[in-house]
Amino acid sequence: MSCHRLFLFVFTLVLSGAARAVEPFGQDLALLTEGAYVYERNCMICHGASGDGNGEWSKGLMPKPRSFREGMFKFRTTPFGMLPTDADLQRTIRGGLSGTAMGMFTVLGNDELRAVVEYVKSFSRRWRKLENYGEPMHFEAVPPWMSEASARDAHVAPGKILYNNACAVCHGAQADGNGPSAPLLTDIWKLPSKPSDLRQEHLRCGDRPADIYRILATGMNGTPMISYDATLTPEQRWDIIAFILSVRVPSAPVLGGRTGG
After folding, report:
1. Phi/psi at 186 (nearest 5 deg)?
2. Of 130, 120, 134, whose CA–CA distance to 23 is shortest?
3. Residue numbers of the domain that contains 51
4. Among 36, 39, 106, 232, which residue is least crowded by beta carbons within 10 Å?
5. Which tens digit of pLDDT belongs to each residue from 129-167?
6. Based on the domain organization, do 124 and 156 belong to the same domain?
7. 110-121 and 86-95 helices, crossing angle to 10°
8. Residue 201, SS3?
């Protein structure tokens, strides 16, 4: 038994008699044990035995596999700084992340998926503190005009102005990820945090307008990408998305999957 799994065994026994209103960390030893098995078969090679992102295959990968030790996850439905929901993590595992080595684990059964999510949560103490939990945010429905090219065109010009004010400093005036601040950006792991090339057909957050809207609302934990939930109205965010779609170009197939997570 690895040191991490031994710790889980002891920690679960300690928690088993504790009465709590919520369960921020799994208490089901059987579930954690199954999750460890799924993780070791599918995830450890990149994310490492201790969940630090330093697995055998991590060397040379860019972006580097996620470290789970800090409990920081980019793709969520929860507010900025909060932990993701189990459904958020499951969505990322199922759908993968375009442009990365994170593939689509569609072969995992529902029980395996639930178990490995619980095991991933065991790597960080953030999951044991209730203040790190947040309710999923409400996201406005995609406006009808978004699916009509002629109607969407009317929103491109105001969207470009908003984009230049809020996004261009990082993502560049051409939305190519080469804004003036881009070379200086780093994440909490002190690694370069290159802004996405928003012209690409497949983005890591997902391909749909709703996926881009969610990122504008939630931000991306651990990166310079902040939340615009308090600074841009829903209408302004949809206008920015209309501009982004106007500069999108078809892309070649990319490594990894497509996700809405």
Report:
1. -135, 160
2. 130
3. 3-132
4. 106
5. 999 999 999 999 999 999 999 999 999 999 999 999 999
6. no
7. 120
8. coil
